[in-house]
Amino acid sequence: MYIGRFLVVGPDVGAYRVSSRSFPNRTISRRDDDTLTVGPTADAPETDNPYVAYNCVRVTDAGAVLGNGSHVDPVAEKLAMGYPARDALATALLSLDYEKDDYDTPRIAGVIGDDAAFVGIVRRDALLVHEVTEPTLVATYEKDTPEAYDFDATDAEAAAREVLEAEFEHAVCAAGVVRDGDGFSLASLDA
Ligand SMILES: NC(=O)c1ncn([C@@H]2O[C@H](COP(=O)(O)O)[C@@H](O)[C@H]2O)c1NC=O
């Protein structure tokens, strides 16, 4: 089954996977201590698609944010400003809305906050923001309503590996984020 980009978020762990039929030449790099970025590999063909390079993980003092596009930045900024995680997700997802591509690709995001974790998705037909108390998956296609997901990883690399090796088609690269004391550990892997 092809579900496109997806994330898994629980109270202390998160993971994000780029799956892609159209843009497989991508990797996740560490932009700085608090940021992981999806971008093209050196051999990637040039593209003017605005949706395939973005920060996919950002850590703030108020929690970690994961997602499949440029909305990750305003979610992180609002979280850092003191917005509740639910409101940071809802406002950023609604203002950017689904992607204006051939598929009306949804935007998905998750927050691992100090007190609670949330996942969100904005689709053409809905905006959903759910608090989660167990690992929960949401994807751009097919699995576009949050659902519980069996997830065992307890460190960042294992989290990235677990989603990278999940039985969904066209794996490209993945990121993991795990609560670590007062902060978070980050990791990324290529398929
Ligand atoms: N976030 C991403 O990494 C990403 N990769 C591809 N897309 C969008 O999704 C469309 C379909 O891509 P694909 O056939 O690889 O699933 C692309 O034309 C692009 O507009 C993305 N946008 C949202 O998921």
From TrEMBL:
Pfam families: IMP_cyclohyd (PF07826). Pathway: Purine metabolism; IMP biosynthesis via de novo pathway; IMP from 5-formamido-1-(5-phospho-D-ribosyl)imidazole-4-carboxamide: step 1/1. InterPro entries: IMP_cyclohydrolase, IMP_cyclohydrolase-like, IMP_cyclohydrolase-like_sf. Residues 2-182 form the Inosine monophosphate cyclohydrolase-like domain. Keywords: Hydrolase, Purine biosynthesis. It is an enzyme of class 3 (hydrolase). The keyword Hydrolase applies. GO terms for biological process: 'de novo' IMP biosynthetic process. One of its GO terms (molecular function) is IMP cyclohydrolase activity. It comes from the Archaea. Its EC number is 3.5.4.10. Catalyzes the cyclization of 5-formylamidoimidazole-4-carboxamide ribonucleotide to IMP. NCBIfam families: PRK04151.1 (NF003167), purO_arch (TIGR01922). Belongs to the archaeal IMP cyclohydrolase family. HAMAP family: IMP_cyclohydrol. This is IMP cyclohydrolase. It comes from Haloarchaeobius litoreus. The lineage of its organism: Archaea, Methanobacteriati, Methanobacteriota, Stenosarchaea group, Halobacteria.
